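Training component of the fellowship. As part of building independent skills, the fellow (R.M.) carried out the full modelling exercise for a liganded target. The chosen ligand was HDE. The inputs are recorded below so that the supervisory panel can assess the work.
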Amino acid sequence: MSVPQKSDAPKKKSAPSKAAASKGGETHQQAAGDGVVLTTNQGTGISDNQNSLRAGGRGPTLLEDFILREKITHFDHERIPERIVHARGSAAHGYFQPYKSMKHVTSAAFLADPKVKTPVFARFSTVAGGAGSVDLPRDVRGFAVKFYTQEGNFDLVGNNIPVFFIQDAIKFPDLIHAVKMEADRGYPQAGSAHDTFWDFVSLMPESLHTIMWAMSDRAIPRSLRMMEGFGVNTFRLVNSAGKTNFVKFHWRPVLGTAAVLWDEAVKISGADPDFHRRDLFEAIESRNFPEFEFGFQVIDQKTADALPFDVLDATKLIPEEIVPIEMVGKMVLDRNPDNFFAETEQVAFCPSHIVPGIDFSEDPLLQGRLFSYLDTQLSRLGSPNFHELPINRPKCPFANMQRDGHMQMLTAKGRANYEPNSIDPAGARESPSVGLRTAPIPTEAAKVRLRSESFADHYSQARLFYRSVTPQERKHIGEALTFELGKVDIPAIRQKMLGHLNIIDKTLGGTVAEELGMTGEAIAAKPSVMPIDLDLSPALRLYGKYKPTLKGRKVGLLLAPGFNLKLKNALVAAINKEGAAAAIIALKVGGVEDSAGTRHPAEMALRGSPSVMFDAVAVLAGPAGDKALSATPDAVGFLMDACRHLKAIGLSGSPELAGKAHAVGPVGITDIGAAKDIAAFIGFAREGKVWARESA
Ligand code: HDE
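Fellow's submitted model of the complex:
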């Protein structure tokens, strides 16, 4: 244990060592050392944590210094292998509570009683980048939730996109090798805009539906608190009578969905690589607890059979217009981890962790996942006892005859480490009544390596998604494809991709070809099944589906000398009333003077707070302040970017800056001359983005 041990550690004040004293006196810790004494991992008190043991003040260090060696050895082994995918993640504790009993479809106890709160731990992640990569690459986001139920842990290991790139687990290593940094050159980090990824996609049309989602604004979310989540694979629900249904799991953010623009994502990655992690942590610290509703699409066999695609195919979704989502409860994330490594890093999710009442489907992607996660935890966490770590340990009793192994943390008692046994009649035994029972789904068939015909249509749902979303989303998909394919060196890969895009939607293919300067160069794709036009699904839209709100958002207020204090206070009050936060920015972090010459503290200096970090911005200045701002490139950039990124903008006393930043005239810019104008600014800010400005 490297944490201080209260009980055993000697509690007397530690005297500064002679060496420390001779080198310039006491450190803060030594001076303040009335509290817990620093010890080795064996509990031996440490008298000097500043100097290693040496032969004389200037002599060589002695091998005898076990305190130095213990400390360095532990440090040398502080890192564990990062996750091969989803390495970069942020997490929080919370609870889940059902709205009503779901007993009619599942016997799962945590879904049976609206009074029962089940503790959860949720981890959000990017897929491709390493643990130290930025938060805002274009990427799918992981959305994994561990429910510590009274019947065991249930891990719902999902994503923020409802479909996946491949249909069979055997293709996963190829997909991931293709998207991660290229084997010879070691780049790009956390980005799909390179040859190997698009080479793979161009040869694997089953990935095209997910590609449409990954190129949409879903892949650059504004906040982890504003993403939908999906179980992706089809699971089964089983009720106490043994009746089964298929189910698709959904998470819906109470704050609604929001995304940033690509140019914002690129700039945020530089300005604040931890943008999402910080946002989640700060929201919880300020008690704005992220909330997600949990929804089920319950599908009976008859409905599944009538669908024009296979419910076992993870590259397909079931439109809500065909099977509505029933909201069954809510997850609230109300506590940050105490220690990032012990919790966020060591948490081990496994789709194979289910509880009675939930069962798997035969989806060949899910079947492979059931093997992979347990296997990967063994090398990542280094021991088959990873379930004993506090973050992974079930909160209900657990007992079996598994014993020993690396880092065994439990001290099993008695002689009986096998079953059946007569030596320990009170010991753990199997239980047909409360134990998990697999739904007896018939499976007899010939052993074949074969993809079912029902998985063969790779284009219809890609088209469905592209045509169902809003015009802005469609525009951004085209731009993202142009950007990504523009980064591909090998022309034939681009040409093949254009062939696929033409089949999904001719206009899309044509626009991307034109933007790439490759009109007429597409290599025609030959689908094995020609796509059909499915009924559009407006539910697939990212924008316009949730009510406009400013709740949980952040408004940046740039204050310059001579600003109107009354207006600033009214603005902050209006922003707070919306449930949003106002961040005070000034040219210098030391503060800024209002029109009466009174100095006010700032929270952020302009240089470190570009407008990409906020959902909406306002600039308040007096004449001198306006002059100072317009002479400052960072201030001009602040406003120019806010304008380009379609943010609601409020301006008070800053005409010169507005002119320099070309922020005169576009929709969504409110002149805040008096408090009565604030409502109009808030109205635009609630919309998230002023889309009319983009069309203009
Ligand atoms: Fe994963 N995935 N995955 N995956 N996955 C992992 O497990 C894997 C897939 C997802 O926050 C790994 O603990 C295979 C789909 C999330 O800790 C690994 C296949 C979905 C996380 C693994 C898939 C996911 C992982 C790496 C294809 C959405 C992060 C580290 C058959 C439903 C969990 C680890 C966390 C992590 C394997 C496809 C979601 C290697 C073989 C589809 C959210 O076991």
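The panel noted the following from the submitted structure. The chain is about 30% helix and 15% strand. Residues 83-86, 89, 123, 125, 142, 144, 157-159, 164, 169, 172, 232-233, 314, 348-349, 365, 368-369, 372-373, 376-377 surround HDE (CB under 6 Å).
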